[in-house]
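In the lab's daily routine, each protein ends up as an entry in a very long ledger. A line of letters takes care of the sequence, but it says nothing directly about the fold. The fold becomes a row of whole numbers, each drawn from a learned catalogue of backbone shapes. The protein below has been through that process, and both of its lines are reproduced in full:
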Amino acid sequence: MAGEIRLRLDEDGSVMLPAAVRKALGVAKGDEILLVQGEGGFLMTTRRLRIEEAQRHMRRYVKPGASLVDELITERREEAKREY
């Protein structure tokens, strides 16, 4: 889905999201939606989509097959040895 979608505020300030938008975001009634303010306006997203975006971004810096958890554990163990 691309392009511009116009929404209208109800009297109480509510906005109804079209089904195509809800489907694209992967949300249903009662789910939480995040509005992130940027220079040109707001980005509508979800926590799940933000996490997936961060994971994609970080994958560029991690070697294939590397485990950041294992690296962190190894570093912590080495620090602990130096403390004693």
